[in-house]
Amino acid sequence: MSSIWGEEFTRVAGNGKVVDDGFSGEGQVAARVALTRIDDKDEGNITLRSPGVWTFAHEVNMGPQVGSGVDGLSIVVDRERNRAFVGTNTLVSVVDLDLNLVTGGISGLSGAQFSLALSEERGELYVWEGGHFLLVFDLNSLEELKRIELESGRDWPSRVQWNRERPILVDEESDRIFMGNRSSVSVIDLVHGSIVKKIELTANSLPPGDFNNLQAITDLIADNGNGKIYAANPDKGLIEVIDAKTLEAENPLDPVSPPVQLILDPEQPFLYAVGYSRLVKFNLTTQASEANVPLRDTLPGDIFFFQTPNPYAIFNEKDRTLWFGEGHRNGLVGSSVSAGVINGDFRPPALFIVDVDQFEAPTPTMTWPMMPAALEIDPESGEVLQLGVDNRLNRIKLDEGALRTDSRNRVIPDAAVEIGGDPQLLNVSEGKNLVYVARGAHGGFFVLDNEGRIVSTAEGPPSLDIVVSDHFDRAYVFEAKDRLGIYELSTLRRLNATELTLNSDFFSTSVSQIQPDPRRGVVWIPSASKLVKLDPVNGRILGEIVLEAWEDGFPAYTDANRLTAYDPVADKLFVVRPGTDGNQILTLDVVDLENERVVSRIDLLKAFDGVSDISWILDMAFDASAERLYMWAMHGSRNEGKGHRILVIDTAREEVVDFVDAPGEAGVGFNVVFDLARRVAYNGRGGFVNLDTGQIGELVSKGDGDIGLNRLTNTIYTVNDTNRKLWVFLGPAGSETPPPVAPAEVEAEAGDEEVTVSWSSVDDPTLIGYNLYRQDRPGAQFVRINPQLITETWSLDTDLTNEQIYSYQVSSVGQGVLESVVFSETASATPEGGGDFRMILLRRALSVAREDSVSAPISLESLEGFGEEIGLTAVGAPEGLEIVFNPDKVVPPKVTELRVIAGANAPLGRFEIDLQGTGGDRAQTARVAVEVTAKELAESVLTLELDREDVVLGIPLVVNGRLFPGLSDIPIQLDFRGARGDTLITSTVDTEVGGGYRLEFDMPFADQWSVTASWTGNDDFAGITSRTVAFRGTSGQSRITATSDLADDADLGWIATLKGRIHPSPGTITVSINVRDPDGIERQIDGVLSTSEGFYGHDLRMDKEGIWEVWASWKGNDQLLGAVSPVITVPVQTDVGRVILLAGGQDSNRDVFWPTSNYLGNLAYTTFQRRRLVKEKIFYLNDRQEQDVDRDGFQEDVDDKATMSAWADAWTWARERVNSDSPLYVYLVG
């Protein structure tokens, strides 16, 4: 229950959404809430747009759901749980290294750029939050255990000025922590949670409170063999030495070059001191520097760059090499640096690989993937984790041969985990009601709906800016300096890239100035001295109009010097022309597009009283009805008190006729957007001005980034440069274009496995169609089920499950894809058709010699609760061939034996025999081929598997299997049958070495399909037909799975990772996870990002005993419909029993019974799961370990191979968990 304006109300679902935590205590909350009175007498809807003012709606993560981690500096790895923790400027991100996803985080801490350490032995994570405390967290639950108070005064700057983490060293033997200070080391007793000593070291130069670059202890390392702690003191150029037992400082070591990082050789008595431009090898035995290597941060033919403020290095124990990236005291910091790397203005530091035994200076040939902010290495696997300034964690495997590099000689990581977003510029499509955001170094661009949910991601190279054209169905993406990527907007496919290398003419070009020209079917893009004409479809350069360049021949360093605006009536393009010194904007070129020449120029000085100090035109907009051009101009001098003005130009008279003062500080630029219909202009810092009255105002919250406006909905979107989030602002109530109302009189009529939904038509001139939403169980989300807008007032929903309740809602959609705020009333129906059963032959072809017999299993499965007895018979067997079922009457689910007995008089040859099962009013038939031979032929087995069961039109289905025996170059025939289309498609594929085969099938149309593989046999082996596997071909359908990996012996409060996968993958999108705890309290977690492969994950603390229920959903997009997963159960401190399951046999071409054993074992596995025995409760032994048994997207169901040692391990596992009150199920197959 909640209340608003003194009235209590119950929050209920609206449009498939649930209002979660009530209303904010401050300001406005932008949402639409369905209100239901307690007495159920009436209902109402309110909108929280406010009259007359803008409302800050919400902010959207451009990164993981738990928070977008930016400006990180610290990495620690929990190897037992295969997790990494990353300390960022906003939170501690938790990375699941199996999923390559941020699944959790520690937020709400009062600090910035957290420094981390952990102890797996103690099960603790240590976080310094930039203040007076060291926080201790439990590694299992991530709950805070205690806070250890540090010194009363700060001995470390609140923000690390040199962008390096504060060193924290854990000594697990003594239960102590050593923390680096300005010129000392604090020793913390972890048992008592207090500082036991502060070890003073060589004093640094500056007085207390005055921190300059590297005026502190920058690294700590333990030498357990010698009982020493070494500390890097770069200001004094010393390696400080501490006795680990007495905690006394000893004589420091002089490594010749100032050390920033220290690395201890694990095999030999050497300490490696990593400094600026130098690497030192220090001999701990002789107490002297033995060798040093000067490193220059250049590549062959490259210029010298001052880039990263710190050197970073890791030691690869496998080949005894140091991997080093040089740093510079005045290097660049912050995530905004990634834009300069993309544009080619900067580059990451060179990667030096130094053999520590030879210790010679190498010549670098490659760079790190991105400027490093932290490095970590797994000594066992040899994998490097590199945190870049683009807020990604790069995973680089060092033991798999030569590193791969891109065209710029940057190392290509094996995987990259998004810790935080790197959004750049954005663009709004009013025709599609979508927002497009360039993803920076992460590549491609996001597609967000009008509320800011990420609904699609276009994969592609790194990107800086984007312009979309609904007319040409194209997205134009500025991918790098001089390169323009062309994407098809409707499919998000990258079609082409145009290199705009015209003698560096595009140095200051911004793709946001692309002007689509539908009249000529081209687009125009300005450069320093040309207006270039491009083919809008493929980006090919078609021609150019020469513009006058800067008089000094060098363009100003800004993306705004060649802004453009189009006059569609006069067919002219206005192009900003720079002034004499490359920094002043003096005139405006008027370009005749038909004749392709500059016809006149407009003087801009009048508006500033002739003072030539207009350094920047931020944006322009043309009002065709009034023949007025509006230009937001900025002064360049901050000290003269001049700010921003909007120039008003009469384009008919070609002169400045007026100006309006605008919000903004002189010399400070930002992005601008005009709304000429409402006579307002907005800037990216939250300011706006009325173009008629000159009244200046501010949005509710200020931003500091790019800005976009949807004029239909009067909604502003900004990218905040500080936290890299998208902010959404709603205009005053009533200022938006209203969508059509939802239909009335919705009815649902049930049929056999189908429902017909109908509704009354909506009378609205803006109406373009309807959307139909379905709910397949109470409490689940309503998901859109129509790939295209419905133009009729009815729709048929097919392929449903009988006896299941389906509920429907309908919405209306108007021009600009404006959808009804409130959907229709709900209509429900229950398809009926009765239960049924399925008869599956695991071997569809058998071979038998005269006076012999052969057996094969038949699986009978119940559908929709069918429980009648089934009688089995055979039809078509010739005389002398007897077909026997054992037993011949069964109640499904059941596996029975099919035995074929050939008498001495059985005819030779191949016979098709129909096997019939009848029960109740249902009947099923399956056909088996029996070959009778004079001599006994060796049996063969043919398996068949699909990579998925739901196939989307346009995405190939992968069919694979194996022929036993493992013969190569054997033709396998695959028959694909479409049921409704009555279609047969036959393909042939040859087996590979070992008998395996693989084929990609492009489904020609959506239907219910099945596929069967067959082989005719040879002189030694009998022919064989595989089982028939069904799959559903759909147009735009998707499927989402859900599972968890909470440890079987987890204590209350431990973290479970809720995870799953979307098939087929829609790319990086946002997923919603619904959780119902044992008390029945339900909550929805929105904004969980998936990977490009469709995986998602989110950490949840299981803090209540009982059965938890979890399901996931995603909204869908223009390519794929959304989906809701089945409900999964997670037992927490609740005993549901254990299972030992063994599928005997060997996954080999010598074991002809293996496919049957594997099938039956997997069938038993899924049956136990349906009875709430989740995968953590099942110890499954199977020779094929890499298989996804429950089809949840993860190959983690099989625990070990079917061996005697593994069998013993299974019983040990069971003894530790089973007692007199806990059942143990043992199921053996084979």
Structure in words:
Among the domains are: 48 residues, no CATH class; 223 residues, Methylamine Dehydrogenase, Chain H; 95 residues, Immunoglobulins (Immunoglobulin-like), CATH 2.60.40; 100 residues, Immunoglobulin-like; 101 residues, Sandwich (Immunoglobulin-like); 92 residues, Immunoglobulin-like (Sandwich); 92 residues, no CATH class. Strand 8 and strand 9 form a beta hairpin. With 1230 residues, the chain is mainly β. It is built from three helices and 98 strands. The strands form 24 sheets. Strands 79, 81, 82, 84, 85 and 86 form a six-stranded mixed sheet that branches. The radius of gyration is 35 Å and the shape is globular. The N terminus is likely disordered. The longest helix is centred in the last third of the chain and has 17 residues.
Tell me the distance between the termini.
57 Å
| CATH-assigned fold name of the domain at 481-703 | Methylamine Dehydrogenase, Chain H
Corresponding CATH superfamily of the domain at 481-703: YVTN repeat-like/Quinoprotein amine dehydrogenase
Instruction: Give the CA-based shape.
Output: globular
Characterize the biggest β-sheet: 6 strands, mixed
How many beta-strand elements?
A: 98
Based on secondary structure, the structural category is mainly beta
CATH-scheme architecture of the domain at 481-703: 7 Propeller
* Beta-strand residue percentage: over 45%
Q: Helix count?
A: 3
Poorly predicted tracts of residues: 1-46, 208-212, 299-304, 502-508, 550-560
What gyration radius follows from the Cα positions, in whole Å? 35 Å
- Approximately how much helix is present in the residues? under 10%
What's the average pLDDT?
84
CATH class of the domain at 481-703: Mainly Beta
